[in-house]
Amino acid sequence: MTNFTWLLDQYRHLLNLPAHTARVTLHEGHTPLIPAPSLAGALGGGFQLWIKYEGLNPTGSFKDRGMTAAISEALGRGAKSVICASTGNTAASAAAYAARAGMQAVVLIPQGKVAAGKLAGAVAYGAQVVQVDGSFDQALAMVVALTEKHPLALVNSINPYRIEGQKTAAFEICDALGTAPDWLCLPVGNAGNITAYWAGFKGYHAVQATGLPQVLGVQAQGSAPLVLGHPVDHPETVATAIRIGKPARGEEALLAAEESGGRIIAVSDDDILAMQKLLASSEGIWVEPASAAGLAGLAQEIAGGRFDPHGQRIVAVCTGHGLKDPGIITQGGIQLESIPPELGALEAVIRS
Description:
The protein is an alpha/beta fold.
């Protein structure tokens, strides 16, 4: 692995990992912080905007940062099997890293609620995939109960080492910018990521004096327990990655928003899908629907006059690649022009 530094080695001095932690890696992390001037202009301009594109991790989502830590710790203490509940991205990541470690993986998913691209990944990596006729929250409760009776390593974000690994994204942002941004915008589902980012920024600031961002966490309106103030029994949203009605780290997410001087809001599915298309067409960055939630929330706050972005440095976290859920683009059918194999016909179409 020439010229490769394992993410957890690079930031080991900032992470709380046990000495027995092994090394299970797929070269995760080191994702780009992409300037997005065209999108910033479309939102009114006058500020700097970057996209932390986590869809370029090995399995296509941010989950790989936490999974390299969780699986490495589990392998190091002798675990043979891992288990998780998932709306899709955790399933694919756990399956991939378990395969890399030579471990067995079991994933529970809510029946009919997981995007095909994510389910395909978990199957391809060799996991045992079990559907639950219920919600993600019910699946997670079952997984927790099972690990209390059997020797399987739980690798959902309630595993503290997942959070340790996910902190590294905050470190990378500070390294790239030289300081923390003024604002961080990101989607909120089970709330592990917002918890990890805030912990990461605080930890880095304590060592490097990089400053702290305000945090804007964004949920989908049909799955917004942190905005509503109570669990949602039947969460619904096209943004499957954040279709969670009872976030495992909900209290920590609310604390992150409060401590940072930020907030957690909700946006509609229509706004999420519109932002997904705008990000792709204006910046060439295609993300799954949930990944566009943070930016949709930013746009909503600016349009509503609740946030003045002038002069601000803003980072939006896009958590998963568009290929995780391509069906959201194709489900209505794609109408393509058809022409005969003649140059004149092509010229006529292009002119129009």
